[in-house]
Amino acid sequence: MRQTINGADFRRMLLSAAAAIEINKQKLNELNVFPVPDGDTGTNMSMTINAAASDLRKLEDPTLEKAASAAASAMLRGARGNSGVILSLLMRGISKKLKGASECDGVLWANALQEGVDAAYKAVMKPAEGTILTVARLAAAKALAAANENNYLEFVQEQALEAAKIALADTVNQNPVLKKAGVVDAGGKGWCFVLEAMLLALRGEDVVVPENGESAEVKESADFSDFADEDITFTYCTEFIVSRENGNDPEDLRAFLSELGDSLVLVDDDEIIKVHVHTNNPGTALQEALKYGSFVTVKIENMRLQHTEKVLSEQELSPKIAEPEKALGVVSVCAGKGLGEVFSNLGVDGIISGGQTMNPSTQDILEAVNRVPAETVFILPNNKNIIMAAQQVEGLTPKKVVVIPSKTVPQGVTAMLSFNPEGSVEENTEAMNEALDTVDTMQITYAARNSDFDGYDIHEGDYLAMYGSALFGTSRDIKVLLRSLAEKVHADGREFVTIYYGADITPKQAQKAADIFTQLCPGADVNLLSGGQPVYYYLISAE
Questions:
Q1: What is the pLDDT of residues 25-37, one digit of tens each?
Q2: Which residues contact 214 (CB under 8 A, 6 or more apart)?
Q3: Which residue, 24, 45, 137, 259, shows the most beta carbons closer than 10 Å to its own?
Q4: Start-to-end CA span in the chain (Å)
Q5: pTM surpassing 0.85?
């Protein structure tokens, strides 16, 4: 039984944990009770912890302090969604307790787990029972008790995992929504995967991602630190994800790309094909990929140019911090060209692409903030699952950061209408926060899975209407939901209605939706705008 760990051991434990989350991310996603498409817990936790795994793989024989610090820093910047942020905070606390230590025994490890819990609870405004916080707290408490009994780290980890599993099973009783659905908390389940994978690594049974699975080792960008310019055979690092929309065999794409370049990594599942390749002809690679479906993401980087500029780290890849040219600036998160134009016209300095199903990381938000030439930068997350990631930016930049906790795009738009670039930070903070409650948000999307939720028998593919944060209705006919929402708006006496239609709605369909509101809300001023947003067919604000 292992008594202590050093830096190399800790690195193995984290890599094992990252692999476990990657392997089980879809299981975690499927625990999400609410049937709307969202930034799924498993995906967010996987992207967050794999940011640490990517940096840890670059470290050779790290000290314990360095390994823990590198993991915490990478996870903080790579944190996505509430579950990802909490996971990063747990790691931040662990890293803080391990600072200055060359090795870690059971007592120190138990205190590190508790420090992680303290950091996470401190950052969450209203901690709820039956979540990852509960599971982590009870696991840390058991670890502290176990360390007094036996100072072997492996024993302490065993006891922590045992307590975590018991706490996880009880989450179904602590949260009414989970109880009704008969499932445990997804974030808590993720933390159990982390603790278990760490224990397995201690025993020499490291968890690894199967070769035929989507590899956690496909990097976000090329690593130029180990070779000189003359070693670069192909100029462009080309990465993309294409959705699988036909029966074409990905092995044919692999064969084609292997002739076109080198450093080829191609992984696929039932839904996507993910590719990384170095080539001199990225256009040819992309053209061939279109035979398999449409692009989800594309990134092309000139490796020679990056090497010449000595881009040796993620930090150096980040844009420089813009010198202040004004007192106040604003960045906003949204998805869709039309919504981006709305915010730009209202005076927003920077648009961060993201939203539901596409939660930007803390690093993404940080880079947008740093590009704004202002002393103070306001952030409009416009999604409840992005607020915590935005809040982590403070302290990572010399600029003053103010997060306005907008949970929807209409709230963000209303907040911007209250923004005064000549006003003080305090005046704008108060005015923008007050504006959030003056607008009702309605959204129409689709059911991502079958569910029995809040009295509704929901089937995958149904249209879903949201009013605020509550489910308003479900139907196979979108017009039924539009009429119900319009009747609600009229009954509430709202005077101004703005309808943003999404990427999957034609102008003709959108006009029919506007006509429904005009007919059923005769006293309201109804405006129709192309938002171009994915996932949501309509975003509707009423004031």
A1: 988 988 876 655 5
A2: 22, 267, 269, 274
A3: 45
A4: 64
A5: no
